[in-house]
Amino acid sequence: TFLLSSYFSYLFHSLSLLLSPLISTQSASFSLPFVSYLLGCTLFFVTTLISIEFCCGSRSRKCEKPGCKGLKKALEFDLQLQTEDCVKNGSKEIDRLPWKGGSEGNPDYECLRAELRNMAPPNGRAVLLFRARCGCPIAKLEGWGPKRGRRHKK
């Protein structure tokens, strides 16, 4: 903000120095060159503001997914521990995400999956969600917890 304000103050100061002879010689009537300079400066200023809003505004951070919030400083990943009930009633959005990890035998991802399995609740899962810059989940890595049977009454 400081750099932009100093840049615009420099522009207005230099334009005032350039346009002051034109204004002093023709103070009674506005001439065509003065109006064209003023119109050009206004058009440049408006175009600059629109381009800054378009390039750096919240719309540029959003992806094409519906419901994207376009967060500015979103986390790169998110860890969710889901119990058995959450898995049954859980959102299908996580299930539809692609699996991250390349091949099944990748040692780096196998180490992560082993840690996820240790953290996962019984009959549940631990899901590591990889997020885009806007905050939307783009991939998952999941580890299922130990399967425990239900107790049956005799």
From TrEMBL:
<protein>
    <recommendedName>
        <fullName>Ribosomal protein L34e superfamily protein</fullName>
    </recommendedName>
</protein>
<feature type="transmembrane region" description="Helical">
    <location>
        <begin position="34"/>
        <end position="56"/>
    </location>
</feature>
<keyword id="KW-0472">Membrane</keyword>
<keyword id="KW-1133">Transmembrane helix</keyword>
<keyword id="KW-0812">Transmembrane</keyword>
<feature type="signal peptide">
    <location>
        <begin position="1"/>
        <end position="27"/>
    </location>
</feature>
<dbReference type="InterPro" id="IPR044196">
    <property type="entry name" value="At5g19025-like"/>
</dbReference>
<keyword id="KW-0732">Signal</keyword>
